[in-house]
Write a structure and sequence with these properties.
Blueprint: H1 18-33, H2 48-58, E1 70-75, H3 78-99, H4 102-108, H5 119-122, E2 125-132, E3 134-136, E4 142-144, H6 148-165, E5 169-173, H7 180-185, E6 191-200, H8 216-219
Antiparallel strand pairs: 1-2, 2-6, 3-4, 5-6
Helix pairs in contact: 2-6
The protein binds 3-iodo-tyrosine.
């Protein structure tokens, strides 16, 4: 197997004072704690540049063997959004009326979700996130990617944080199964849709469920000396 290694370049790294590091970590946490999953979206448009910048942040994610095995389809076209809504609602109807086991329906009941997904047409942008199981290399042969779900998950997390930081609201939507998205968006079979990220402004007076988050000691363990 031939392999070309990358040449090494100096790392750009800014060494900070510990006090400033803590301050930054606190400020970032405070901002991110304000992120909530929104289901009531306004139809107010957003500039494409905002989406582009946040997608560049997503693309900074680490990935298995640096393959960057993701594709983000950003959709604002009303016709395409309508098709996505119709496809998703068809799957969701199945899910809510027969496919979902009772324990899953019970877990969702407090959120009040159902098969109706008006936000898929109303929000200005849908970002459909695909993982690339394979890619076609320069010689035209199929190359396997690694840790695709993990890599795309990290990229999606960064995207959600970037969109929130930019002042936008998001909803992670997971119609299941999602194959219909390949067809609507003309994506190849080597790509698997992972989720639809709904992006926009919240509706005025949007309501969200009064959920709480686990405390530090509930979700961590420290193994110091
Ligand atoms: N995909 C369905 C069901 C759903 C599942 C989970 I887990 C949620 O946290 C929310 C919804 C839907 O989008 O309605």
């Amino acid at each position: 197997m031939e392999s070309d290694s990358f040449k090494s370049i100096p790392l750009e790294f800014e060494l900070l004072e510990e006090a400033e590091m803590v301050e930054r970590a606190k400020a970032f946490n405070e901002r991110l704690q304000k992120r909530r999953t929104v289901r009531d979206f306004s139809d107010k448009q957003i500039p494409r540049e905002l989406i582009e910048q946040c997608l560049l942040t997503a693309n900074s994610a680490p990935s298995g063997a640096n393959r960057q095995p993701w594709h983000f389809a950003a959709v604002s076209d009303p016709g395409k959004k309508k098709e996505i809504r119709e496809g998703a609602e068809e799957e969701e109807r199945e899910f809510y009326t027969s496919r979902a086991p009772q324990d899953w329906l019970d877990a969702l009941a407090p959120l009040g979700t159902d098969q109706n997904k008006p936000f898929l047409e109303r929000a200005p942008y849908l970002i459909v996130i695909f993982g690339q199981k394979f890619e076609i290399d320069k010689k035209g042969s199929k190359q396997k990617n690694y840790y695709v779900t993990e890599s795309v998950g990290i990229a999606t997390g960064l995207l959600i944080a970037a969109l929130h930081n930019a002042g936008l609201a998001t909803l992670t939507h997971t119609p299941s199964p999602m194959k219909f998205l390949n067809k609507i968006l003309d994506r190849p079979d080597t790509e698997r849709p992972l989720m639809v990220l709904v992006v926009g402004y919240p509706e005025e007076n949007a309501q969200v469920p009064a959920i709480s988050r686990k405390t530090l000691d509930q979700f961590t363990s420290f193994h110091d000396d």
